[in-house]
Design brief:
The complex is a heterotrimer of chains A (317), B (274) and C (263). Chain A is built from 14 helices and 2 strands, in the order H-H-H-H-E-E-H-H-H-H-H-H-H-H-H-H. Chain A is mainly alpha-helical. Chain A has one domain: ABC transporter involved in vitamin B12 uptake, BtuC. In chain A, strands 1-2 form a two-stranded antiparallel ribbon. Chain B is of the alpha/beta class. Chain B has 2 domains: 130 residues, 3-Layer(aba) Sandwich (Rossmann fold); 115 residues, Rossmann fold, CATH 3.40.50.1980. Chain B is built from 11 helices and 10 strands. In chain B, strands 5, 6, 7, 8, 9 and 10 form a 6-stranded mixed beta sheet that branches. In chain B, strands 2-1-3-4 form a 4-stranded parallel beta sheet, sandwiched between helices. In chain B, helix 5 runs antiparallel to helix 6. The longest helix of chain B is centred in the middle third of the chain and has 15 residues. Chain C has 263 residues and is α/β, with parallel strands linked by helices. Chain C folds into 2 domains: 174 residues, 3-Layer(aba) Sandwich (Rossmann fold), CATH 3.40.50; 68 residues, no CATH class. Chain C has a 6-stranded mixed beta sheet, sandwiched between helices. Chain C has a 4-stranded antiparallel beta sheet with strand order 2-1-4-5, with helices on one face. Chain C has a two-stranded antiparallel ribbon with strand order 11-12. The mean pLDDT of chain C is 88. The chains are: A mainly alpha (317), B alpha/beta (274), C alpha/beta (263). The interface between A and B is medium-sized, with 34 and 28 residues.
């Protein structure tokens, strides 16, 4: 019953994304409109895929670091992506894909650094991954990258660099069938890895030692979940900038109805995150039309009150 | 005894020489906006300019003047090192603070507004008055005033355009910007005239729906003939992008109001006539 | 089933061995208790026995295979562990948490089957905790929660049960209940049990065999009557005791230290 409801909500969000928008497209013309097919449809799908990926990554990460406050963007990836993007602009790298690729590479570089920091006892199979260090390292590397980025923007001559910060605030303006195809080909593997880790993630809630005694290969699971969640976040940042709160709030919302079993939680987080971001993007495009709000602003404006409500619920329970 | 001597020395040291000239117009001017530099040279006060920003590149004679770095906000020490008796600044938040700092060390400063075409006349007159070249300033000011008195573009016959400043997210120029005025003066209609802000983020579908005939992009001289986003698939939903109808306008000429605004309008008109 | 032979271990950077030449063997229907003062290496012994740590000297085998070479998944079908500390992050019901014990029996993508739920019911029944099945964990008392954890370990349907100080922070009634439960599992279900405990008296009453450690070294091993002598206990625990016999088994009574006389 609740699954039906979730699927209906997701479909509604997608339909609304396609039907509503600042450009007035009358319903009868919907199927023939270039705007709908070339702009709104890919944008709606991209929003759904990115939102879903962030929701799943957030749920996986919260289980991995055993902290309900974890958000995919705590991993330092957004700082790395921003730095990559700004460098691409500052170095005048050309090509329509220069910015997303540079952002992706920057995110991966940050991922590598944080991963290395998080490994205690040396690299290779001998090293154990400490989730607390992942969190702290992520914050540190992210702040470091953000500082370098700001320095570059402050010192450089190009005024366009300041516009790079607008990109970083999150936007699905770059959505096209090309980017949808890219994401559709990319995300199944990390999503599958996370889904396969559902049971070990359930066990991890008891603590690493207990999880090991109940049969989880804890080190392998930590590595896989961290990498999969990071890869999902990296592609999300590369195609749409930093969209906060989706990865943080959606898992909590979904847990209210689906509980903590990740076998159900992860797919529900995907649908919920997708619906949320599609809906937020529709708002971003229509609320101040003809102008547009950055999507990251809309998700924060929705996410913060929702989060506050959730916190109240916890303290009452 | 020694203490009294020390006291006298301290009092003397705290007296600063006044930067205000006793008589006559200023002879050592630092200009902190390229447009002011252009105006000063145009009204004949060019040889009084002893400091400019690094962006002041016109007229060529200005390049011989030493640069003091950025203009917004300026490096106060670099400006002071030129020993000016007048500093002209663009009136904006960070510069207000800089002006206060300069005044505190005894340097006379003037903050002038220059955001739109209609500010050009008054700015020119102010600079003329300050430098004693009021007569030459007046004739230039009169010409510049005439530029801003143009009829609004007809919504049926004018060529339509949109200025795209950034592609992801799409940022366009609105009615509050100087570029919008240039378009009007050149006889074109900015499809985003209804947005009062100087610039705003819009959805790509809005640009596609409003279907401007031309997409104007500010470019530097070394840039290619098409902007980077021309090849992006989602931008091809805009007809002007599909047809390659781009107006690449030089940033140094179009980026700011100045004495060459008339030249800018002429160039834009010629581009539109193609 | 579980065999440690001449095991020694030192933590990296430590100045002395945590375990030194320890041997232990636990078979089915045997209840072994490991005792010793704080820092005597008891928890280290459990970790080595379960393959979480590898001994520097000697061997630790489960069912004839080196403990650390066992895949975690397979080992969990054989050995159920109730560790000292558990930090459950998310709220759960009793039935859900006991169901986690079935995970070693589930395939990667398979769902829980009827037999899994039956195993959970059996485990809860063995621990006399069926009435708690639908309660939220946070509403349980310490004793009830401990029983639930034992039930979870039983849901794994192990042949060997390892408990690390399970009686800590339990009151008299619940601690006795726990020891009775474990003894019952040994006798009725044929489990082998390895338990670390502070409680010498209960260990003596319920366990078949004791191992007394001091500073990582085995001081005495064997039947309770042989291990718990006044001399041994006083030496290892540095405290004067008197020994009594209850049900034919030694019980130690700690004595009060005489006060320093002030002139």
């Amino acid at each position: 019953m609740r699954w039906t409801l979730l699927v209906v909500v997701a479909v509604l969000a997608l339909v609304a994304s396609v039907v509503l928008g600042p450009a007035a497209v009358p319903l009868p013309e919907l199927l023939h409109s270039d705007i709908v097919w070339d702009l709104r449809a890919p944008r709606a799908l991209l929003a759904f895929l990115v939102g879903g990926s962030l929701g799943v990554a957030g749920a996986g990460l919260q289980a991995l670091v055993r902290n309900p406050l974890a958000d995919p963007f705590l991993l330092g990836l957004s700082g790395g992506a921003g730095l990559g993007a700004v460098l691409a602009i500052a170095l005048h790298l050309s090509g329509p894909w220069a910015l997303p690729i540079a952002a992706f590479v920057g995110a991966l570089a940050a991922l590598g650094l944080v991963y290395r920091l998080g490994l205690i006892g040396g690299t290779g199979r001998g090293g154990a991954l400490d989730p607390r260090i992942l969190l702290l390292g992520g914050v540190a590397i992210g702040a470091f990258a953000a500082a370098i980025t700001t320095a570059i923007v402050a010192l450089a001559d190009a005024a366009e660099l300041r516009n790079a910060f607008l990109w970083l605030w999150g936007g699905l303006s770059g959505a096209s069938w090309d980017s949808v195809l890219l994401v559709v080909l990319y995300v199944p593997i990390p999503l599958a890895v996370l889904l396969a880790a559902s049971r070990p993630l359930d066990l991890l809630a008891l603590g690493e030692e207990s999880a090991g005694y109940l049969g989880a290969d804890v080190e392998a699971v930590k590595r896989r979940v961290y990498l999969a969640a990071s890869l999902l976040t990296a592609v999300a940042v590369a195609v749409s900038g930093v969209i906060g709160f989706v990865g943080l709030v959606v898992p909590h919302l979904v847990r209210i109805t689906w509980g903590h079993r990740h076998r159900a939680l992860l797919p529900a987080a995907f649908l919920g995150g997708g619906a949320l971001l599609a809906f937020a993007d529709t708002l971003a495009r229509t609320v101040v039309a003809p102008r547009e709000l950055p999507v990251g602003v809309v998700t924060a404006l929705i996410g913060v009150p929702v989060f506050a409500l959730l916190l109240r619920r916890w303290t009452i329970a | 005894m020694l203490r009294r001597l020390l006291f006298v020395v301290l009092v003397l040291a705290s007296c600063r020489p006044s930067g205000r000239p006793a008589v006559g117009p200023p002879r050592r001017i630092v200009s902190l906006l390229p447009s002011f530099t252009e105006i000063l040279f145009a009204i004949g006060a060019g040889d009084r300019v002893v400091g400019r920003t690094k962006w002041c590149d016109y007229p060529p004679a200005a390049l011989a003047v030493p640069s003091v770095g950025e203009g917004l906000p300026p490096n106060v020490e670099a400006v002071a090192a030129r020993h000016p008796d007048l500093v002209v600044l663009y009136n904006a938040g960070p510069n207000v603070t800089a002006a206060e700092q300069l005044e505190r060390i005894g340097i006379r400063t003037v903050l002038i507004d220059l955001n739109r075409l209609e500010d050009l006349g008054p700015a020119t007159r102010t600079l003329g008055r300050l430098t004693g070249f009021a007569a030459r300033a007046e004739s230039l000011a009169a010409f510049l005033d005439s530029l801003s008195h143009q009829p609004p573009p007809s919504s049926t016959t004018s060529t339509t355009l949109a200025f795209v400043v950034w592609d992801n997210p799409p940022i366009i120029i609105g009615h509050g910007s100087y570029l919008d005025e240039l378009a009007t003066a050149a006889g074109a209609r900015n499809v985003f005239r209804d947005i009062t802000a100087p610039s705003a983020q819009v959805s790509l579908e809005t640009i596609a729906a409003r279907n401007p005939q031309w997409i104007a992009v500010l470019s530097d001289s070394g840039m290619p003939s098409l902007p980077g986003f021309a090849k992006r698939r989602e931008w091809r939903a805009v007809r002007a992008v599909r047809d390659g109808h781009f107006l690449m306008v030089p940033g140094s000429l179009f980026g700011r109001p100045g004495p060459r605004s008339g030249e800018a309008i002429r160039q834009l008109r010629a581009l539109l006539a193609r | 089933m579980l065999r440690l032979a001449g095991v020694s271990y030192r933590y990296p950077g430590a100045s002395r061995d945590a375990l030194s030449a320890v041997s232990l063997s636990v078979g089915p229907r045997e209840f072994h208790a490991v005792l010793g003062p704080n820092g005597s290496g008891k928890t280290t012994l459990v970790r080595i026995a379960l393959g979480a740590l590898q001994p520097l000297v000697g061997r630790a085998d489960v069912d004839g295979r080196s403990a650390s070479s066992w895949p975690r998944h397979d080992l969990a079908r054989l050995v159920g562990v109730v560790p000292q500390r558990e930090d459950n992050l998310f709220p759960q019901r009793v039935r859900e948490t006991v169901l986690l014990g079935r995970y070693p029996h589930l395939t990667l993508w398979g769902r829980e089957r009827a037999e899994d739920h039956a195993a959970v019911d059996r485990a809860l029944a063995s621990c006399d905790a069926q009435h708690l099945a639908d309660r939220w964990l946070w509403t349980l008392s310490g004793g009830e929660y401990q029983r639930v954890r034992v039930a979870r370990a039983l849901a794994q349907e192990p042949k060997l049960l390892v408990l690390d100080e399970p009686g800590m922070s339990l009151d008299l009634r619940h601690e006795m209940g726990l020891f009775e439960l474990v003894r019952g599992l040994v006798e009725m279900n044929g489990l082998g049990v390895l338990m670390i405990t502070h409680d010498l008296n209960l260990a003596a009453r319920f366990a078949d065999s004791l191992l007394l450690l001091e500073g990582g070294r085995p001081v005495a091993a064997g039947a309770p009557a042989e291990v718990l002598t006044q001399a041994t206990v006083e030496t290892v625990f540095s405290w004067p005791v008197a020994m009594q016999t209850v049900d034919g088994l030694p019980q130690m009574i700690p004595l009060r230290q005489p006060k320093e006389s002030h002139p």
